[in-house]
Structure formats: C-alpha cells, structure tokens
Amino acid sequence: MCHVPSVMCHVRRRGNSGIAEQSLENENQRERADMGTAKRFEDLRAWQEARNLTRTIYRQTETGSLAKDYGFKDQIRRAAVSSMSNIAEGFDCESRVEFGRFLGIARRSAAEVQSLLYVALDVGYLTETEFDAHFMQAAKTKALTGGLKHSLTKRPHDT
Fold it and tell me: How many Cβ atoms sit within 10 Å of the Cβ of residue 78?
C-alpha cells in the first residue's frame, strides 16, 4: 500500500496517458528527422524543450516558499540547466558515441527534475496544476532527448 496516494495518482495518470505518450512519440520522430539537418545545437528540438524546462523552473523558484529553500532551489535549477547544457555540449562532440553519452546525462537530468518536482509537490511548494505542467515539460524534454540519442544508433557511426 502506498503511503503517498497523491504521488501514486500522478504516476498512474502519466503511465496510462495514451494521448501524451503518442504526442511524445510524434515529437521523437520529428527530433530524429531534425538531427540530420541541425547545424547548431539551438536547432535541436530537445535543446529547445530543455531550455523551456529551465526557464519554467527558474520562474517557479523565484517566489514563494520555494524561493527561500536555497538548497532545494539550487538543486532543481542545476538539474534543469544540466539537461540543456549537456545537449549543447554533446552536439559539439567528435563522435556520435560521445554525443550519445552526453544525451544520456541530459535525459537523466530531466528525470532528476521530475523527481524533485514530487518533493516540491509533497512539501506544498507546488500546486497540482503547477506540478503537472512542469512534469510534462520535463517528460517532453526526456522523450526528445531519448529519441535523439536513439537516432544516433540508427545511423552509421562516426569514426
């Protein structure tokens, strides 16, 4: 039995959301197509969504009780920035394997944001609506980053 029913409700709702999952899969397909034409990291949808995630996390942590919890605020901001930065840094790598490693870090950083959002919800820093919006933005970032990483394995490897 779960001791935190509101959190489990969010997990179940996200896990069973066929519409959201289909939308994220469509985003993944577009990101894989974009990879072939990207000339700059700013062209990547994964980076653009990670940037949106970072912006929303910074705005959310500027006011209220969350703004005063300096350790937590710093941690969630760093995780969001890490996702965005690792996509950019990886794009400039010499090989697809190395780029893939950076994308894995970026994806895990977005997952860290999601985990920290549960903390913020559980301690009352976020409303359910705020939680849902930020969680879905992090999920979109994760999905696009994962799709981009997957696309690297579907193409011939660089030497």
Answer: 16
Q: What is the CA radius of gyration of the chain?
A: 16
Contact present, 77 and 61 (Cβ < 8 Å) = yes
Catalogue all structural domains in the chain, each as residue range(s) with its CATH number: 5-153 (1.20.1440.60)
Whether residue 111 contacts residue 137, with contact meaning beta carbons closer than 8 Å, is answered with no
pTM (two decimals) = 0.78
**Residue pair 100/152 in contact by the 8 Å Cβ criterion:** yes
- Read off the pLDDT band of 159 (50, 70, 90): very low
Nearest Cα to 54, choosing from 102, 86, 89? 86
User: Which letter does DSSP use for residue 63 in this model?
Assistant: S
Question: How far is residue 24 CA from its own chain's centroid?
Answer: 12
Asked if 96 contacts 157 with a C-beta cutoff of 8 angstroms, the reply is yes
**Contact, 144 vs 27, CB < 8 A?**
yes
Q: Which positions ≥6 away from 148 have C-beta within 8 Å?
A: 31, 32, 35, 44, 46, 87, 103
pLDDT(66) > 60: yes
The DSSP annotation for 84-138 comes to: HHHHHHHHT-SSHHHHHHHHHHHHHHHHHHHHHHHHHHHTTSS-HHHHHHHHHHH
